[in-house]
Structures are given as structure tokens and as C-alpha cells.
Amino acid sequence: MADTLDPLSPSTNSPRVPGLMHKLRTRFSRSPPPRPSGEGYVEFGEFRSEAPGIKKVGTFAGVFCPVVLSMFSALVFIRMGYLVGNAGLLVTLGQFGLAYLIVFFTVTSICAISTNGAVEGGGVYFMISRTLGPEFGGAIGTLFFFANVVSSALCISACTEALVENFGVSGYLVGENPGLPNGWWFRFLYRTLLNGVGLGVSLAGASLFARTSLAIWVTMLVCLGSAFISFFVTGSSMIDKPDMNQLVNATQFAYTGLSAATLRGNLYADYARDYTTSIGERVDFASVFGVLFTGVTGVMAGANMSGELKNPSRSIPAGTLWALLFTALSYGALSLLTAATCSRELLQNNYVYLLPINIWPPFIAVGMLMATFSAGLSNLIGASRVLEALAKDNIYGFLLRPMANHSGNPVMAVLASWLLVQFGIMADSLNAIAQVNSVLFITSYFAINLACLGLDLASAPNFRPTFKYFSWVTALMGMVGSASLVFALRPAYASGAALACCALVLALHFLSPAAADPKWGSLSQALIFHQVRKYLLLLDPRREHVKFWRPQMLLLVASPRQSAPLIDFVNDQKKGGLFVIGHVRVGELDGSGDPLAAEQKYWLKLIDHLKVKAFVELCLAESVRSGAAQLTRLAGLGAMKPDTVLLGFRDDQPPKDFFRDPQSPYKSEEFELEGGEQMFPCRRTINARLACAEYVRIVRDVLCVDKNVCLCRHFHLLDMAAVERRSPSVKYIDVWLVEPLRASREDAFTVPALFALQLAAVVRSARGWQHLRLRVHVAATLPAVILAEGSRSYAVQPAVDPSLPPLDPGRPVQQRLEQLLRLLRIDASIHCVPEWPVLEDSRRLDSLDDDDSIYHRVPMSYLQKVNSIMRVRSSEGVAVTFVQLPPPPRLPARATSADEPLCQQYLKVLDELTKDLSPTILVRGLKSVTSTAL
Predict the structure, then answer these.
(1) pTM of the shown model
(2) Who's near 839: CB < 8 A, 6+ residues apart?
(3) Which helix (DSSP H) or strand (DSSP E) does residue 568 occupy?
(4) 30-39 average pLDDT score
(5) Can you tell me the distance from the alpha carbon of 80 to that of 332, in angstroms, rounded to the nearest whole number?
(6) Which of 779-788, 805-814, 914-923 is the least confident region?
(7) Are 922 and 910 in contact (CB under 8 A)?
């Protein structure tokens, strides 16, 4: 069976690699093919590129007029009586103030984002997604799309109500003449026809609507002006109630004209029943505010038209702020004049009171129809543009692919939006639709303020908006105000919107193609960087304590193709600690660029493919040993640095390609390149391995810088799937607390032994490994250390871990070890090995570190017997075996001819010790990592 692990093999430095690196550099430096342009820009998410023949609109026609028309919508002509008649003038003005305060803060955030870079089609969705990333941006963008759909349905319902009030049976403009028939089905028919007209205009192009918005705005301004004039010139009279009102028996209500008494009577709230609902529902503060807030939701209409604007970054802030001021003054004046001229009964029972009191009623009729229809059309176009943007960004993959359009008007997106509006207009109550509409828009406002707040707090250097009136305070107030308001007034609706948003965020995070390969930045990354930097500075290595030690691993690999099971295993072994995958390429900088830059992307793909939580460190060095030393010393950051280095075992078994093996759980074609080339090619010949001396020097270097070292062998045999599915063929984790070349009954209490025990305990505590049993093997019948010189033999006490509590040396090893395991809270069974052989040597050895000649003098028969004992005791059901690593031989600073034979003999000793075992880790620990203290 091929061994998967010779991770420092120079195989990736074969003569074929330069050609592979040239292909990678060429592949990633190649310019993308040009894409067709549409709607005046080349690609959504790229900088604007004006297309010839496409006329753009300016601030007034493209932003100011659409925002004013959208904000007035159903409120200014159809629902002002509903507001003042129920809430009173003071509450109405207070609600307007609250709504405009939230909207103003949100507008400052919109202006900040829109003046911080190029704004493309998709408007507010573009701003949110490019700031918060694909997951959160896509979720909020989806809610914003539905908000526009609901708002369009609201405006169409209001337009239908205006039609029926003016041209229905007994309508104000038909009088005694036959009018349009009324009833649910007829109103649904009218809404359907209006929605169809909006579809036709949308298919003709949004630019057409933007250029005609000026004429619509002028018309509506005339109508609104007639309403203000009428308050002053129309005398007192009795106004008939509309036919829709079936709640009261009275047929007429008083219009008093300007009157101080009427104003005093309308100052305070007096909630009545809503005659437009089928059951006459009682009005309250929340329902009034829900309707009122629809009058400020149109503030995003200008941003939604960003794809049709000449200069979005300049037009959106200026046009939106002027529209906000204009509508605020209009609402305030209209509320005051209404409260001063209309009796409470008139306002509560006739929401379209502006018609009969006008100097020429058709003015108001035209204003009603123009305001509501244009607002509905604006929202329909806005919804289609957001849907198109979601499709172009590949947020939902193939589900929205037909909606993407790169060469003109997004026909499929318009049709899909129109269909959803058609479902929305089935709700007969305008006020009921308004509640949902307000919640969805407030959620969008919350997201925009959150985006700007995050950008400001993250101190992103590229967040430099030219809009001067934005700060983190305005964003915070807008965010808190939006959240507090919506949960205070409509907790059920708000909870539903919040749950929907969270569900979308999670779904997009795991399933969205855009989340897997985002084309824009994510605010979460900026915030994480900002906070991680702070916490890394707080993480002081001088305050480390053994109680809180956790494995921090650096795994050096040459080819992940042959190392996949080990990478997977170390990911479980780290126990929430640091895991760094290191790779060394032999070479040098030649002035033509970074040779590892193109390869980096594939290493990151590897992390995703293997589903491990690891960092990647690539190193370019003049030799593998030099690169390994650099990674050992420099990998990590601050106090988060690896303390344990893992290497594959150097043997002569041919490697196994886990990416091509059809039976392998790691099989993948992601790393197959053009022309039959492979990313991470396996070692092809035995001669491609590292020299023995260089390999041993790497091990020695790791120990020299006071880091623990682990050599991993036979991990191509590890079946992680069997471990995770609790297969009966995998039962144990074995730890041999015996120094193989100087066995002693005190070995179990030394630092290297307890380090190996701690690693095994950590592995067993990992998810998927907890069902395995931990077995500890000790040599119980040996004296302290048996070494011979001639006919004499004498004992040398090994260095016991100084952190351990006093353990009675007179008690048997098994009892002391049981006591220690209880103190360490490690659940393990102890197995004594009475047949452990004694290594008899012809010279005295106080320590293996004092004489490297032991590796030449150790009999192969001794090693084979030790190996046989371990194989017999671990013959079945062992997932991983931990064995103590004998210290590597000391080597001179400069290489000599004697290095290679000595290192070959050392590796031969290790080979004989671990031959035919289960996946084995040879561990050499230098630091105390166990604690019995609280």
C-alpha cells in the first residue's frame, strides 16, 4: 500500500513544475472576455461604462421627481383624512416627525454609500450587498425586492380606490350617471388592468418612465396646489359620505373652512373604525403609523433608478434630500390645513374629502390617479431591477438565471415582478397591505444603517464618502430607531421579517454560489479583521498557563494528494487550537513575480474541499530544510504560533493519490489542470525523497527551537469515515508510555510521555472520536533503567515531569498511573507489558542524547521484538497509535560525509519500530502540557 506521507519531499520541485507554474500565472493573469453592455453599463458590480445611444437622466428627473411621486403615492390624496381624523393633528405631526427622523438618518447612510464609489444598477440592493457581502446583502436584497412588490400592490390598490371613488356608482365625478360597477371581483379586475398597464410601461423601459416623471410631477404639483388653494377659498358645506362607508347611518358631514374651533377639536387622538375594511376594524396608533410610513418609503425610488442616472453618486444624495424636504413641508402643511377646516366626523368617514371640497374636483381625481399609478409603476420597475441584480450576482444560482439580462431591459425580471404584484393585489384592504409594506421597508432601512455603521466602526481605509453629514452616530440612531419602532408597533410582523432574514442569510451562506466565490468585499471580513487584531494584541504569550494549553499544529506537507487523511486527522487533533498547513517550494525570486501567487488559490480551494479549519503558509526557500525552519519559527502571529510540528514519515513506499482514487472520500477533479497536469503532484520515484540527513536535520531543527515534533506514518490506512460512523472495526486509541530504546517503569511520568498522552486524550475528545476507548501501555516490570557495562548493570532515573504532584515511588507503576489519570481527568485503561525486552549494551549510557552511537549498536532483533509486542497488542481495532520518538542524533552545524549513514541508521531504527502498525504518530514532547490544578 502506498504511503501518503512524505510531506517535505521535494517532489513539487521536479522539472515539470516551472511549466505548471507558468500555466497557473498565465491562467490567473488572463483578462476576462468582454461582456455585452446593457442599460448603459457593462457589468453589474463593475465601474460604469457609458454605452453609446443610451440616454441618461439627471438629478431632478431621475431622483427628485421619482422620490416625490413615490412618497406621495396613496397618502397625500387618499389617506390624509385617515391619519388626522384618527390620530389627531399633534399625534400625526409627531408620527411624521418620527418617521422623517428615521428616514433622514437612513438617507444620510444612503448618501454616504452612494458617494463612496460607483453605484450601478440595483440601487439600494447594490449598496447593501457590496457592503455586507453576498449572504446578508442577498437576504436584505430579497426582502427589499418583496418590499417593492408589496408597495406596488399597495399603490395599485390605492389607484383602484381612487377610480371607484371618482368613477364608480355614485362616484364624485359621475354623479347620478351610471358609473363603474363595484364589488370585490370588479375591483380586482381594475387592479389587474392597472397592473397590466404598468407591465407595458415597464417593458418599454425604465428610462422612458424616468424622462416622463417630470411631466407627471408637474401635473401632480398643480393638483396639490389646487388642494391648498381650496382650503382658503371653499366655504363651509356638508359633504356626502362615500358609498364604500357602510359603518354609519349619517349621510353628510361638515366641512367648516378655516376655524379655530375645528382646529382645537382635531388636536388630539380619537380612534374610530376603519370603514374600508370588511368588518370595520378599530384603528389604533400602530395601524395609523403603518399607513403613514408608506408616505416615506418612496425615499429609495431615486436610488433604485441608479442604472438610468448620469451620475448616481451626485444625483442620489442631492435629489433625495431635496425631495425629503419638499414632501415634509407638503405633509405638514396639508395636515395643519386639514385639521383646521374639516370636522372629525368628516375625516373619519370620508378619506377622500379633498375631492368634494376642491375648487375643481377633477384636479384631485387626476392627482389621485397620477400619484398612485406612478408610485406603483416606480416600485414595479425598482423591484424588477433588484431581481435582475440578484440574478446577475448569481445569488440564487440557477433559480434566477433567466432573470439576468446583459443587453437591455430585463424582460423576465419585469414579468416575474409583475406576477408577484398580481398576487399582492388580491388583498382588498389598502390599510392591511400598508402594514406589511412598512415593516419590510423599515427592515431595509435597518440594514442600510447597519451597513454604514459597520463600515465606520471597521475603520476601513477605503470608506471615504464625500457626503459630509454622515457619522456613526446617525447610522446608529437610524438602526436603533428602525428596530425599536418596528418591534414596538408590529412585533409579530417584525419577528417574521427578522426570522425570514436570518433564514435567508443561513441558506445563502451554505447554498449560494455567490457566497462560495464572492466578487465583492464583505463587511464581516473587515469587522473580523478589526476585532481579531485587537484581541491578538491582548493575547500576551507571557501570560500563558498550562491549564489552558491546546494543540497548536503546523503540518508540513509536500503534496496534499498523498496527505489528505493526515490533514483531516490533524484538523480533529487541534481541539480548537491553531492549525497551519505549511508547504515549502525550493526556488528563489527572479524578479518576474511571486512564484507561489498562482498556487495560493488552489491551497485555499484545498481547505474548502477537505472542510478543515486551517491556515495555509507557503514558503519559497533555497532548500526544504531552510523553508521548514522558516515556517517553524515564523508561522502564526503574535501569541498564536504553532508549538508542535508534524511531518510525514520518510519511507520507500509509493504514495497514493487520494484525489484520483474512486474509492477515496477525498476524490476531486478540482485540482486537475489543462493538458493532463496536476496541482500538487505526488512523488513519482523513491529518489525524489529528501535525503536522510536533511530530513533528520529538519526534525532536529524543530527540537532546537523548543517546539514539539511528531512524525506520522501509515496514515494512508486511516479510515476517517469508519471512525465517524462508529464502525466496530475501530475501537481504540493506543498510547505507548515507554521510551523504546531505554525502557523504564518511570517512563510514564516523563514530559515526553505525558505529552503523547495529552495528544491522545485530545483526539479522543474530538467530535466523532469520543466513542473510542483510550488504552495506555506501560512497561511495569523493569527497573528504573537497565544498562550494562561488562558484567555490571545499573539504573538511571529518567526526568519525571516536574509539574506532577508527588506520587509514591514505592507503589506499583499501575497504581501510580491510575492515580495520575484520575488527577488529570483522563478516562483510560492501563495495560502493563511484562514481556518488554531489555536492551543490553556494551557501554554505559546515561542518556540517549549523550551518545548517538546507540543507533548503530542497537540490535535489529531488539527492535523487531518491540515491534512485535506493539503489533500483537494493537492487532485489531486500533485507529491511531502514539509512540514516543527517540531523540534524533546530534549533527554538526556543517554537513559531513558521516551524516548520511548515521541518519539512515536512525531512520532505520524508527522504521523497524513502527513497521506494519496502525496509523502511528511518533511523538517527542518538550513542554509540560498537563495540569492537575483547578
Answers:
(1) 0.69
(2) 741, 742, 743, 786, 787, 858, 862
(3) helix 560-573
(4) 39
(5) 11
(6) 779-788
(7) yes
Q: Residues 523, 154: contact at Cβ < 8 Å?
A: no
Rounded-to-integer distance, Cα 347 and Cα 275, Å: 11
Q: What is the pLDDT of residue 734?
A: 93
In angstroms, rounded to a whole number, what is the distance separating the alpha carbons of residues 799 and 785? 12
Between 722 and 37, whose confidence is greater? Answer: 722
Q: Which residues contact 668 (CB under 8 A, 6 or more apart)?
A: 609, 659
122: left (phi over 0), alpha (psi -120 to 50) or beta: left
Alpha helices (runs of H) in 490-623, residue ranges in sequence order: 491-511, 513-516, 523-538, 560-573, 597-610
**238: which strand partners?**
254
pLDDT in tens, 364-420: 889 888 888 888 888 888 888 889 888 888 888 888 888 887 666 788 999 999 999
Mutual angle of helices 430-457 and 491-511, in 10-degree steps: 50
Reply yes or no on whether the pLDDT at 285 is more than 90.
Answer: yes
In degrees and rounded to multiples of 5, residue 921 shows phi and psi of: -120, 115
CA distances from 98 to 270, 479, 809 (A): 20, 13, 79
* Nearest CA-CA partner of 874 in 821, 822, 921, 820: 921
pLDDT of residue 341 exceeding 80, the answer is: yes
Match 490506512 to its residue by C-alpha cell: 717
Q: Say which amino acid occupies 789.
A: E
- Give the DSSP H or E segment for 684: none
Closest to 626 (Cα-Cα) out of 698, 555, 557, 559: 698
Distance CA 630, CA 634 (A): 6
CA distance 192 to 197: 9
Residue type at position 151: S
Q: Please state, in angstroms and rounded to a whole number, the distance separating the CA atoms of residues 800 and 817.
A: 13
> Which triple of cell numbers denotes residue 637?
502571529
Rounded mean pLDDT of 849-876? 81
Grouping H, G, I as helix, E, B as strand and the rest as coil, residue 709 is strand
Q: What are phi and psi of 291, to 5 degrees?
A: -70, -45
Residue type, 531: Q
94-112 pLDDT tens trace: 999 999 999 999 999 988 8
User: Cα–Cα distance between 651 and 562 in angstroms, integer?
Assistant: 13
Question: In this predicted model, what pLDDT tens digit does every residue of 110-131 receive, in sequence order?
Answer: 888 878 776 666 667 777 777 7
